[in-house]
Design a protein that fits this description.
Layout: E1 3-7, H1 11-23, E2 27-31, H2 34-44, E3 48-52, E4 54-55, E5 58-59, H3 60-70, E6 75-79, H4 84-96, E7 99-103, H5 111-124, H6 129-139, E8 162-163, E9 191-193, E10 197-202, H7 206-216, E11 224-229, H8 233-246, E12 251-253, E13 258-260, E14 265-267, E15 273-280, E16 283-289, H9 300-310, E17 315-319, H10 328-336, E18 340-344, H11 353-360, E19 366-368, H12 373-380, E20 382-383, H13 386-394
Helix pairs in contact: 1-5, 2-3, 3-4, 4-8, 7-8, 9-10, 10-11
EC number: 3.1.1.61
Catalytic activity: [protein]-L-glutamate 5-O-methyl ester + H2O = L-glutamyl-[protein] + methanol + H(+)
Pfam families: CheB_methylest (PF01339), Response_reg (PF00072)
Length: 400
């Protein structure tokens, strides 16, 4: 039987969540504090931990750190109001470890939130706990060498839509960012497609893959990048700042009704859907919609579908590690208009739901490792020289 450890200092919350989880067949253990949970976690050996972000005897950052050290376990964070310094440090744990998140209502528990907790626990119980320790170790080591992806270019475009790779220094970007010394961007070989739009969607396990992607994505590609990461609004602005420090692209949290230029990247806010509403010579215009219509917000599907409806040039849709099925309909929409679609593979996805359901649509062009996604995007958004294409076409041929 799957064992769940519920950690919350409020007895009423422990009771409500514990009863709801027990009603669907889980074995439930309760802890009133982080210290209590950590003292008992080895003996309890839970399959999933639900953890309130504010506990009276310490912060959730330390709890996650010690859980992942003592007994690596998927964690569901129940996010309430956080001090600024706690939110900043907690994002480090969110980006590094397998953590999912739900906003906890300030006014008290309600039926929808409790049902969401039960559903999220059900998704997390499928995570292979033995892979968490390996993933945590791997997260501390940077992959230094550049990687190569497939050789596919965007299907809706040809060399007539290509432009010579940019060699400019982007004045919008402080080139002295804190990018790791051992990370190199993917080389751009050939010509870039004019004004490529890249939409990246992710959920649980996605932050660190998105970070690696942005580390390796070259400014010379001159794409416009939209990132939809399932994450509470408390964290999305900080997540954008984190990506900005490691990327050649300037990255910020998206704001209402703004124009984006090639070479810029934005992160969807955690409390709104990011919609693409215009695309012309001025760039790409996006707006925010806080009316939740898809069951999850921000919605990957909303951003990809509105991009497919609006973008007039090269379009690339990417889905990374995450729970649920958000992104599958978006990938179908991108594919329907001739865009290029990429999914992270199962071996490198901490939670394979989102890529798996996208792949099941039959609309994914490439399934690649997490560390090869930036290269796959570059290949999709460039046209290789004719002699390179000819060489690729003759690879593997033998004399009769």
């Amino acid at each position: 039987m799957t064992r769940i450890l519920v950690v919350d200092d409020a007895a009423s919350t422990r009771t409500v969540l514990g009863n709801a989880l027990a009603d669907v067949g889980y074995e439930v253990k309760l802890a009133a504090s982080g210290r209590d949970a950590l003292e008992r976690i080895d003996a309890i050996d839970p399959d999933v931990v639900t953890l309130k972000t504010t506990l009276p005897d310490g912060d959730a950052v330390d709890a996650i750190e010690r859980i992942m050290t003592i007994n690596p376990t998927p964690v569901l964070l129940l996010c309430d109001e956080l001090p600024e310094e706690t939110a900043d440090s907690l994002l480090e744990g969110v980006a590094r470890d397998v953590v999912s998140y739900l906003e906890q209502p300030v006014a008290g528990l309600h039926g929808r939130f409790v049902a969401d907790v039960v559903e999220a626990v059900g998704d997390l119980e499928t995570v292979d706990a033995s892979s968490l320790a390996l993933a945590r170790t791997a997260a501390t080591a940077r992959v230094a060498q550049p990687v190569t992806g497939g050789q596919t270019s965007l299907r809706r475009n040809d060399t007539a839509n290509a432009t010579v790779p940019s060699t400019r220094t982007d004045s919008r970007r402080d080139q002295t960012s804190s990018r790791p010394d051992d990370v190199t961007t993917v080389p751009v070989e050939g010509t870039t497609l004019l004004e490529s739009i890249v939409v990246v969607g992710a959920s649980t396990g996605g932050p660190k893959i998105a970070e690696r992607l942005l580390e390796r994505l070259p400014a010379a590609l001159d794409a416009t990048v939209l990132i939809v990461q399932h994450m509470p609004a408390t964290f999305t602005g900080r997540f954008a700042d984190r990506l900005d420090t490691v990327s050649e692209y300037p990255v910020r949290e998206a704001t209402e009704d703004e124009w984006l230029s090639p070479g810029e990247a934005v992160v969807a806010p955690g409390d709104a859907d990011l919609e693409v509403v215009d695309h012309d010579g001025r760039g790409l215009r996006v707006r925010l919609d806080d009316e939740q219509t898809r069951g999850v917000q921000p919605s990957i599907d909303v951003t990809m579908e509105t991009a497919a409806e609006t973008v007039t040039g090269p379009l690339c849709g990417v889905v990374l590690s995450g729970m649920g099925g958000d992104g599958a309909a978006g990938i179908e929409a991108v594919d329907a208009v001739g865009g290029h679609t990429i999914a992270q593979d199962e071996a490198t996805s901490q939670v394979f739901d989102i890529p798996c359901q996208a792949i099941a649509t039959g609309c994914v062009d490439e399934v690649v490792r997490g560390d090869a996604i930036a290269a796959a995007i570059v290949d999709a958004c460039t046209v290789r020289p004719a002699n390179d294409r000819a060489a690729a076409n003759t690879e593997g041929e033998t004399d009769d």
